[in-house]
Amino acid sequence: MREHVTVGVDGSAESRAAAHWAAREAALREVPLLLVHAVDWPLDPVLPGLGRQDADRWADQALTETAQELHRRHPHLEITTRCPTGRPAAALAAEAVDAGLLVLGSRGVGGLLGFLIGSVAMSTVVATDTPVVLVRVADEPDGPDADASAVTDVLVGVDIHQAGDRVLTFAFEEARRRNCRLRAVHGWKLPSAYAYAPFFDPDNERDIGRSVTRMVDDMLSPWRHEFPEVEVTLNVAMGSAGEQLVKASQEAGLVVVGRHLRRSPLGVHLGPVAHAVLHHAAAPVAVVAHS
Fold it and tell me: Rounded to 5, what percent of the chain is helix, strand, coil?
């Protein structure tokens, strides 16, 4: 299966929204779609009286119903299903190894509160090197909260202190597929020494802002040349990068952020920008691992 899109399916409204988003993405990429439902056995005791056969039958039903619904919407899309056994996060991460993208549902809690990230989604995000997109029910365009006229720009967080090649390449490719604008966002802070200065010259802030903007523009230059058809705008402002991305996400169709591959002594974790965007963005969020 060539660089397919994989999506986690469990019968919930969140996974339904994720499946529809993933189907549209697979159609854009012209690749197959794989629906995955992980059966965790033995099941949690909160489901008394449910046997293994019942669990398998329920999983098969969830996959079949979702596949049939997607086939009606996308009759030319190649759709397959898989039902591995194991902890959902580990099973989904394993299924994502040979995929170009993994899509998961996430429970939205409305407005700027954005996402409520469950343990499975969070564990899966940090367990795979494959890009992961988190989708809420409100992100499903056929849902009651959908706004068909919403702006569909792709938004990407740019860190001038990190290479982030995979993040930028992913964002530019997504903007090209959608034939939409790419908005590059960077937040910067004044050097800590300014906190001890007896006075502050506003001209210094403007000079630093212009310098940072040039650095961001220079960083994007190779991708501008590689993707000349993509319109790029810069949003460089003083303040938290996470806050800038969350604010701008209200007018975006997809937000792209990076996370470091390296591990800390406490294990893999998300950085503060990715963490803020995942919990508060008002659009689907793609997390792209990079060194």
Answer: 45, 20, 35
Q: Check whether the bond before 42 is cis (ω within 30° of 0).
A: yes
Contact in structure between 283 and 249 (CB atoms under 8 Å): yes
**101-135 burial code (b ≥16 CB/10 A, e <16):** bbbbbbebeeeeebbebbebbbbbbbbbebbbbbb
**How far apart (Å, rounded) are the C-alpha atoms in residues 42 and 130?**
28
The one-letter amino acid code at 83 reads C
Instruction: Provide the pLDDT for residue 268.
Output: 53
- Predicted local confidence at residue 146, as pLDDT: 45
pLDDT of 186-200, one tens digit each? 988 766 655 555 555
Q: Residue 207: count other Cβ atoms within 10 Å of its Cβ.
A: 11
Burial of 88 (0-12, 13-18, 19+ CB in 10 A): buried
CA-CA distance, 180 to 175, in Å (whole number)? Answer: 5
Give the C-alpha separation, 182 to 30, whole Å: 21
Is residue 187 within 8 Å of residue 166, measured between CB atoms? Answer: no
C-alpha torsion angle, residues 258, 262, 267, 269 (rounded to 10)? -10
State the amino acid at position 223 in one-letter form: W
Structure tokens at 81: 């299903």
Look at strands 232-238 and 252-260 and give their pairing: unpaired
Rounded distance between C-alpha atoms, residue 175 and residue 182, angstroms: 6
Q: Can you point out the beta strands (E) in the chain?
A: 5-8, 33-36, 79-82, 101-105, 107-108, 115-116, 132-135, 153-157, 182-188, 232-238, 252-260, 285-290
156: pLDDT strictly greater than 90: yes
**Can you read off the two tokens belonging to residue 79?**
């759709």
Lowest-pLDDT choice from 34-43, 104-113, 270-279: 104-113
State the pairing for strand pair 107-108/115-116: antiparallel
